[in-house]
Amino acid sequence: MVAEVIINTTAKKLNRTFDYNIPKELEDMIFVGSKVLVPFGTFKTLEEAHVVGIKENSEFKVKDIAKVENGLTDKQIELAKWIAKRYFCNVSECIKLMQAPGTRTKNVNNRIQDKKINLVYLKKDVEEIEFDIENGKIKSEKQKRILNFVKENEGYTIPDIEALTDCSRAIVNTLIKNGYLELAETKIDRNPLNNKEIENTENLKLTNEQEIAFNKIAKFIDNNEYEQFLLYGVTGSGKTEVYLQLIDKVVKQGKSAIVLVPEISLTPQMLDRFISRFGKEKIAVLHSKLSIGERHDEWERIKENKAKIVIGARSAIFAPVKDLGIIIIDEEHDSSYKSEATPKYNAKEIAKKIAREEKVPLVLGSATPDLTTFYNSNNGKITLLKLTKRANQSNLPKVEIVDLKQELANGNRSMLSMDLYQEIEKNLKDKLQTILFLNRRGYSTFIMCRDCGYTVKCKNCNISMTYHSYENKLKCHYCGYEEKLVKKCPECGSEKIRYFGTGTQKLEQEIHKQFPKAKTIRMDVDTVTKKNSHEEILNKFKNEDIDILIGTQMVVKGHHFPKVTLVGVIAADSSLNIDDYRATERTFQILTQVAGRAGRENLPGKVIIQSYNPENFSIQDAQKQNYEKFYETEIALRKQLKYPPFCDIIVIGFNSSNEDEIKKVSNMAYEFAINNLDSQEFKIFKPMPSPIDKIQNKFRWRIIIKGNMNENANETLNKLLNNLYEKNCKNTKITIDVNPNNMA
After folding, report:
1. In terms of DSSP bridges, do strands 116-122 and 181-187 run parallel, antiparallel, or are they unpaired?
2. Could you identify which of 99, 267, 397, 462 might form a hypothetical disulfide with 605, taking C-beta atoms 3.0 to 4.6 angstroms apart as the criterion?
3. Do the strands 732-738 and 698-707 form a parallel or antiparallel pair, or are they unpaired?
4. CA-CA distances (angstroms) from residue 242 to 238, 269, 592, 724?
5. Do residues 492 and 429 touch, judged by C-beta distance below 8 A?
6. Does residue 439 contact residue 553 with C-beta atoms inside 8 Å?
7. At what angle do helices 659-676 and 711-726 cross, to 10 degrees?
8. Distance of CA 371 to CAs 374, 445, 638, Å?
């Protein structure tokens, strides 16, 4: 028997199958999906590969497979092949998505194994030990103390025994050497939920709207049928309660559920609700803030069917669940469901494919749905379910817009308008909480010389450096490069260096200056680098009488703080001014989501949006929290300009350290596209440098294609990639991304 294998590599030339003989002794162990080690080429070490097919014989002279390990299922291999074709990458790169974390390396010895520790137990019988103590064979008081402790407390580690008996490790080792104690290796359960102690809660009574939504989805669960639903509900309308009761139904049928959230580490409150309803044992968590060991153990729990509910970020869609019953994607509009790294997959598309094949419902939930999702729901491709009222009968917050041009005209150069200042002051007096939202971290967003106009840019990237006051450094937010503060202009020697733009650090400093007695806490990428720091910040804000939470869009997502009655948006224009056709959509979504943090209980909420463009329709509609009015305006513009959902935007990206080669390769790609794509269906723009034309010392070019992606276009673009790699473009990396998140 011969196995067709895919080698685990990113090399485009090796994105094909190779034949290997299956030795007789391994025939019963190897099947499609098996992970194997094979001798490959002139490499001295064995290479990791995956079996994607099995046949009787080969036309080539083939080597033997050296070793077999647990692998993937046939379904997973087929899904990997589909993803590779759909998202223009190697099959091996897609297979990695489905492997247990910690096993994605060629070096077997470096893989994450089950974490084990040594625990101390008695080796001799208690009677024998007591006899030796009484007869003076054991004279040391510390040895006696340790033995008496272990008699009552077997299964402790040596460090625990040291701490609890006030004795050294050497004494424990002496007792082991003399045969009184022994060490036993024990596996540790690295469960990230172990430290959570949460009271159990019961299902809440559903509102009429919630019950209608629940019943419609439940029908498809009972009938084992696929259907895609959009659960569209205002902020605070109780979408999570509907999710919980649907999952409860699925679990009672012995099935499993996958719940995707934008980034689970940023929504601990949601996780707490799931634990209180289902308990820790049934839940597995998968997200980037966990250690590799924790993710490995969670993956294994899912694979062994010990966890029935998987909650995680986009990669959790590949979790090896058994008997899937439902897939739920919360905040489905969030851009983090689309991967920026290869494979550039969209978790919503993968979820749709899996749900269809497994014959289970797919539920997308949002207060501000992605425009394409809502368009499809209006066209009958997705079943629309609406929740128009807040579940606890609280009112939506009152939203005011402040014109910052008028504030300047009135002589106010502060970051806070007079209205926002007065409302913060009132909230502090009333001992209520405030959230201030500014979607830029750091202190100043660019540094410029007033005399010659020189702007301080990253030496690796063609992008402005950001000033971070707490570390007194300039940082590049693209490659991480840091340098000391510039005090003199490197260009003209002038000392008139000025700092422009504002970030969360500067806002925090301003609040301390204007409200010196207010207790503040900041939440942005710079403050959540440590493990569990996000949860610590949110818990402090909730439980420790913090007055003001200052943050980037991390503070927008799904949090519920009963005492928050005021939300201030410092600069609503920051997302409007990006070079992207979705700028107005993202502005509306962010403003509506952040406004939804105010007045979620019985206290009335207020939102103040500060803007230099108060007349923009996305800001006006966000004030009214009228998604459908915004949708009507935006969809008309998209249709007129032919943007998604009326076409796809395909970006062929080029990245190279060689400027001449990148120009040559991008022109070759352009010629191929012009000659092979239907000019009636696709508009192909000439290759140009990307808006940010250099990152990490690599030049960046792109070709933009507008048209509806179909099977033929997909085949053509895959051929384009293969054609270019055959021409041996050594220094240039080429990617193809359909409807990318970032047009920069």
Report:
1. antiparallel
2. 397
3. unpaired
4. 7, 16, 21, 50
5. no
6. yes
7. 140
8. 5, 30, 10
Convert 379-418 to b/e letters by CB count within 10 Å (16 or more is b): eeebbebebebbbeebebbebebbebeebeeeeeeebbbe
Long-range contacts of 425-431 (CB under 8 A, 24+ apart): 425/515, 427/547, 427/565, 427/566, 428/515, 428/517, 428/518, 428/547
What angle is formed at CA 240 by the lines to CA 237 and CA 244, rounded to 5 degrees? 135
Q: List, for the chain, all residue ranges whose pLDDT scores fall below the cut of 50.
A: 105-112
Alpha carbons 341 and 327: distance in angstroms, whole number:
23
* Per-residue model confidence (pLDDT) at position 636: 97
pLDDT in tens, 209-234: 999 999 999 999 999 999 999 999 98
What was the pLDDT predicted at 518?
94
Tell me the two tokens of residue 641: 């300009």
Q: How far apart are CA 740 and CA 650, in angstroms?
A: 8
The secondary structure of 648-703 as a DSSP string is EEEEEEEEES-HHHHHHHHHHHHHHHHHHS-TTT-EEPPPEEEEEEEETTEEEEEE
Query: Are the C-beta atoms of residues 666 and 701 closer than 8 Å to each other?
Result: yes
Enter the DSSP assignment of 185: E
Are the CB atoms for 226 and 360 separated by under 8 Å? yes
pLDDT of residue 610: 94
Question: Minimal CA–CA distance to 729: which of 673, 652, 650, 663?
Answer: 663
Closest C-alpha among 267, 125, 213, 297 to residue 554: 267
Q: Which amino acid is at 193?
A: L
- The confidence score (pLDDT) of residue 115 equals 60
> Of 277, 292, 293, 343, nearest to 314 (Cα)?
343
Which position has the token pair 């969030």? 334
Q: Shortest CA distance to 32 belongs to which of 81, 102, 85, 103?
A: 81
CA proximity to 709, closest of 727, 688, 669, 736: 736
Instruction: List phi, psi (to 5°) of 474.
Output: -100, 135
Q: How many angstroms separate the CA atoms of 125 and 309, rounded?
A: 45
pLDDT tens digits along 512-523: 999 999 999 998
Q: For residue 202, what is the DSSP state?
A: P
The encoded tokens of residue 49 equal 């590969």
Q: How many CB atoms lie within 10 A of CB 422?
A: 12
Residues whose CB is less than 8 angstroms from the CB of residue 599 and which lie 6 or more positions away in sequence, other chains included: 394, 395, 396, 397, 564, 565, 605, 606
Q: What is the pLDDT of residue 110?
A: 42
User: What tokens appear for 455 in the block?
Assistant: 């702007």
Per the structure block, which two tokens stand in for 203?
Answer: 């299902």
pLDDT at 108: 39
pLDDT tens track for 293-351: 788 889 989 999 999 999 999 999 999 999 999 999 999 999 999 999 899 999 999 99
Give the C-alpha distances (Å, rounded to integers) separating 131 from 117, 120, 128, 137, 144: 31, 21, 5, 9, 12
The secondary element (H helix, E strand) that includes residue 568 is strand 564-569
Number of H helices, E strands in the chain: 21, 30
DSSP one-letter code for 457: B
Instruction: Please name the residues in contact with 643: beta carbons below 8 A apart, sequence gap of 6 or more.
Output: 581, 637, 649
3-state SS, residue 609: strand
Whether 274 contacts 309, CB under 8 Å: yes
Residues 236, 389: Cα–Cα separation, whole Å: 8
Beta bridge partners of 257: 309, 326
pLDDT computed for residue 531 by the predictor:
62
Rg (CA), the chain: 30
Contact 3, 50 (CB under 8 A): no
Assigned token pair, 714? 């997909």
pLDDT score recorded for residue 109:
38
